[in-house]
Design brief:
By secondary structure, the protein is an all-alpha fold. The chain is built from 9 helices and no strands. It is 63% helix and 0% strand.
Length: 219
């Protein structure tokens, strides 16, 4: 740990930003890294306690280690607008939530989110809402069938896969990009272009964004 003048130890969470930066970059940075890691582990344990089940301790340890790599690689971007520990915790939380989303989807194939080729119901099972009333269900089904038909008729195969996985199934962009052998930016553009095409086709069918939102409000 750092020392105050006179040889008094400074608790690891009471370093100033300047002291943290100096210690993390200095010749004895191992102690500062250990101290910061302990802070990240405590913060992640608290933040994730109600968001995941199972062996949270091992998850937290892994997330803290991954976050430390990012933090140390980005020290030059820290602008001092908050405590360094607060800035570091935000990075750790983003790392943890991204990895939790990835773990949630790791056993789900893209094909599981796509509609069947046969049969009148184009709705992926993941979109089924058992709590909607009969009238709302009928409206939702009509809209979804229209949307899925337009997807089948107007989009490329890769656009279909991407838009149904991300927008229909809720799979995170980074997971879909990895499964499709592309990157996040290229996938985002693919989905953006597909949405523009679908919006034009929906308007031609007499459906507006407001109609669709109203049908699924409180669903």
């Amino acid at each position: 740990m750092s020392d105050k003048p006179g040889g008094i130890d400074i608790p690891m969470n009471e370093r100033t930003n300047e002291e943290w930066l100096a210690d993390l970059r200095g010749p004895d940075k191992d102690q500062a890294i250990t101290d910061l890691r302990e802070i990240l582990v405590r913060g992640l344990s608290y933040s994730l306690s109600t968001r995941t089940r199972g062996d949270i301790d091992s998850l937290v340890e892994d997330f803290a280690q991954d976050a430390l790599v990012k933090i140390l690689a980005n020290l030059d971007t820290f602008r001092g607008e908050s405590k360094l520990t607060t800035w570091a915790q935000k990075i750790a939380i983003r790392v943890a939530y991204t990895e939790l989303r990835r773990k949630r989807w790791q056993d789900i194939a893209l094909e599981d989110l796509l509609p069947e080729d046969s049969g009148p119901d184009f709705t992926p099972a993941i979109l089924t809402d058992p709590e909607a009333g009969p009238e709302q269900q009928a409206t939702q089904q009509m809209i979804l069938e229209t949307v899925m038909r337009l997807i089948q008729e107007n989009l490329t195969e890769r656009q279909k896969t991407a838009i149904q996985a991300v927008m229909g199934g809720g799979m995170p962009l980074e997971v879909v990009a990895e499964r499709m052998g592309t990157n996040r930016n290229a996938l985002y553009k693919m989905i953006h272009d597909a949405r523009k095409r679908l919006k034009r086709e929906l308007h031609a069918e007499g459906l507006t964004t407001e109609d669709i939102m109203a049908a699924f409000d409180n669903a």
